[in-house]
Amino acid sequence: MPICECGFNFAKANLKGQRFESYAVIRDDDYPKVMRKESAILSEHGRDKVLALISDAAQWVGSLMRCPKCGAWVFVKPHGRTRDAIVILKAVPPVKRARPTKRRASANASRHATSTRHR
Ligand SMILES: [Zn+2]
What we know:
Layout (H helix, E strand, L loop, with lengths): L9 H6 L6 E4 L5 H13 L3 H12 L3 E5 L6 E4 L9 E4 L12 H16 L2
Antiparallel strand pairs: 1-2, 2-3, 3-4
C-alpha cells in the first residue's frame, strides 16, 4: 500500500485497523479475465490452491483509496509494483460554468429588459 504525499501511510493505518474509503479497480479490458479468475477461486476447495488463485487474481486488481488526512485520492494501478503505478489525485475546486444556466439567462434578460425600460 502506498504513502500519500501528505505522509499518510495506508499500510500502517490498515495494520492499526484504521478505516479509510477504498475501492477495487479493474481495467475494462481485463474485467472478463478477472471475473473468470474470481469464479475459479469460488469453485476451488483446496486451501493452498485457493491462496494461489487469489494471489494470481490480485495482481489484476488495483485500488483507489481516499486519504483521511488530506482528502486526496490515491490510485494504485493493477500490477502496481513500480513507482509510476501510483497516482495521487488531489481535489480541485469546481470550475465556473462558461455559459449561464437557462434560469440565469432569463433572469439576466428580464433584468436587461427592465433596465432598458427605465432609460
Ligand atoms: Zn494525504
